[in-house]
């Protein structure tokens, strides 16, 4: 599962790269679990490494 950590500052890079429109930024990023296909683009492009995979 992909999670947003407390390091997120709401820069919205993850929202921009998400091809499934599964991320909303309301102060801090939030993932729509129904839309997320776990492609991990958000993790790759997050400049603060605030998005991670948790087993």
Helices and strands, with pairings:
Blueprint: E1 2-4, H1 13-17, E2 23-26, E3 28-31, H2 41-45, E4 51-53
Antiparallel strand pairs: 1-4, 2-3
Explain this structure.
There is one protein chain. The protein has helices at 13-17, 41-45, and strands at residues 2-4, 23-26, 28-31, 51-53. The chain has one domain: Alpha-Beta Plaits (2-Layer Sandwich), CATH 3.30.70. The strands form two sheets. Strands 1-4 form a two-stranded antiparallel sheet. Strands 2-3 form a two-stranded antiparallel sheet. Helix content is 18%, strand content 25%. The longest helix has 5 residues, at 13-17. It is globular and about 25 Å long. The protein has two helices and four strands, in the order βαββαβ. It is α+β, with helices and mostly antiparallel strands.
Describe, in short, the structure shown:
By secondary structure, this protein is of the alpha+beta class. The chain has 2 helices and 4 strands, in the order βαββαβ.
User: What is the total tally of β strands?
Assistant: 4
Mean pLDDT: 97
Order of H and E elements: EHEEHE
Structural class: alpha+beta
List keywords for this structure.
alpha+beta, two-stranded antiparallel ribbon, 25% strand, 55 residues, 2 helices, Alpha-Beta Plaits, 4 strands, single chain
